């Protein structure tokens, strides 16, 4: 009897090993096209485990977290498979069967279940009150409070008094394979903020997750609140924009606004996108993310950027930390994220 559910077994068995997905996979590309870091091999080894030709091992479980869930392989398979979803389902079904993810990944729920992510001084800026626009802090709150400081200042200029909500959205739980827990966290977030006039987030993944699960909620990306573009406000800046893999249009729109404001803005190539799934992969396979950071810095240097703008604030925090702490990665310009750039446009 196969290890996985009939549905997942059927999907895995339909893979014809053509490798079309490999050619769209950033992890494969960042590892010099090593077959062991590719969607085809993640599916192939899952097939062997499913047929019990090999047993589930710590190495196999860790191996399955090398995929960053960027979804760039979705839509390219000639037999209609979604490799990123198959990989994610394997993670989920392993957890359902009691196989513990790598310890660093298994520790995620404690970290992202929310609560108290604002730095203390902010709580006095805008006291809690119902019926106001509510800014949602996310998983980046503790590691990069400057995102929330900038976001709060920008929102006060745009909207006046706002409410600060401090619940993470749980999307990272999904990418770790904890589907049920993600739903629970999202439910709590929506319930606790149901009286808000509307919700505002600095993270496109958080916006996407809330819109998809609760289409009735009015949730807006922070940059979308800018009604007029301050023409000529930003001169002499040359941005390399790192898109959120699953919301590429957000990076395009930020680029257009910055260009209208007087800056030069370039979108990084697709394979240098960064999204919440990368945070999970970093915990299990930090080398994948180190290679991504090197690729981003090399690209920024090659195009002469003065600033690297990460559309996803959690990725901003993660890659900034990698660049700061790793030997041999140096970038002389600024690292930034949407809230800070919005505040610059408003000053
Ligand atoms: S989701 Fe991204 S990292 Fe994962 S297999 Fe697909 S292209 Fe590669
Ligand atoms: S493109 Fe589809 S069939 Fe080809 S290796 Fe990838 S998942 Fe398998």
Note the main attributes of this structure.
four-stranded parallel sheet, 347 residues, Fumarate Reductase Iron-sulfur Protein, Chain B, domain 2, 16 helices, Rossmann fold, 46% helix, binds iron/sulfur cluster, alpha/beta
Explain what this protein looks like in three dimensions:
By secondary structure, the protein is an alpha/beta fold. Helices cover 46% and strands 8% of the residues. It folds into 3 domains: 6-100, Alpha-helical ferredoxin (Fumarate Reductase Iron-sulfur Protein, Chain B, domain 2, Orthogonal Bundle), CATH 1.10.1060.10; 110-225, no CATH class; 238-346, Rossmann fold (3-Layer(aba) Sandwich). The protein has helices at 6-14, 26-30, 39-50, 58-63, 83-96, 103-106, 108-112, 145-159, 171-176, 179-192, 204-213, 248-260, 276-284, 286-302, 313-325, 338-346, and strands at residues 134-136, 163-165, 199-201, 219-221, 238-242, 264-267, 307-310, 334-336. The strands form 2 sheets. It has a 4-stranded parallel sheet, sandwiched between helices. Strands 6-5-7-8 form a 4-stranded parallel sheet, with helices on both faces. The radius of gyration is 20 Å and the shape is globular. The N and C termini lie far apart (64 Å). The model is unreliable at 115-129 (pLDDT under 50). Residues 15-21, 39-40, 43, 77, 79, 81, 83 line the site of one iron/sulfur cluster (SF4).
Topology at a glance:
Blueprint (H helix, E strand, L loop, with lengths): L5 H9 L11 H5 L8 H12 L7 H6 L19 H14 L6 H4 L1 H5 L21 E3 L8 H15 L3 E3 L5 H6 L2 H14 L6 E3 L2 H10 L5 E3 L16 E5 L5 H13 L3 E4 L8 H9 L1 H17 L4 E4 L2 H13 L8 E3 L1 H9 L1
Parallel strand pairs: 1-2, 1-3, 3-4, 5-6, 5-7, 7-8
Bound molecules: iron/sulfur cluster (2 copies).
